[in-house]
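Page 37, top half.
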Amino acid sequence: MEVTLVPPELQESNPAAMQPSPVHRKRSIWRIVKNVLWRVIHHDCSEIAGEMAFDFLFAMFPAALFTATLILYLGIPAETVVNHSI
């Protein structure tokens, strides 16, 4: 992928020349979608997403344990916790 930078003085002098045509815009959107799909397939995005979900679920147990311990140390009555649950 080639990136070209345009100096600011050229951008200000002719802004209409810097706008891509609608045909070019459609091509670039199609190219972006195709590139994203290719990367999802070839870079194992579904495997990484599964790992992240597993790690998230594994992190929920220590967070619940910490919250329960914090509630006990703060002296919050159990009725308050039960009545204000989501």
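Page 37, bottom half:
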Amino acid sequence: MGFFRRNSEQPERKPSEKGHKELLDAQILAMKAKGDEFDEEILHHVNSAMREGLSLYDEAMAHYLLGDVYENQKRFKEAETETKRALELNEISVKKLDMLLYHSAWVRLGVIYIVTDCPDKAIKCFQESVETLPIKYGGEEGLEGTLALGYCQLANAYLAVFEERWGIERVSYYLQKAIESAHKAIEAYAKYSESYEILGDIYGTEKWGSLHNPFYEPIEAKKFYIEYLATESIGEEDRERVRKKLKNLM
């Protein structure tokens, strides 16, 4: 996608033990945190770790954590800078971020671009994740589920870029791309329920603003909502939400 130059890997730096421990403390807090609960403590540990000196891998993780904190605080420009730096360092580090962290870094960038009204950049971020995941993490356990998540996020990104002033041709284009992405999610992992709900919403929505939906097809919508309800992993609250959507089509 051309976001970063693909530099060759560099030998791993020898980290300071104290720096590595400070970073581990930050990671433990990040795993426990709900929302911005431990943001200030995480910032303290990460900044202390970076002053002590880190390996390339640990430095990538440090920038990832900073991006997480800044996103929580709605400091989106700083979150973008730190997340990009984490991905850049991951490219040249011999040891890589684990699959879910790598994916969530791209997702974070995509979400930042949606929030800051840069939808085309957001779509590129979600595309980068689903295109590079099989290359970097092929054969790893959980790849199919992560890919399905990525394609669903890509579908949602296409749905997020609608502007009524663009007219029906542009609306049709993004709807088609959302449909394709949701189907790719099903291909990647058939039990990933969100993709069925996305497809149900697309086919079951008669109008986008004042524009008629060219893909409106209630029978198709019902089929996908029923598929959603047939998956076992969904909670009762989500199940009830989709039951209501299905009922409205009857």
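Margin note: The mean pLDDT is 86.
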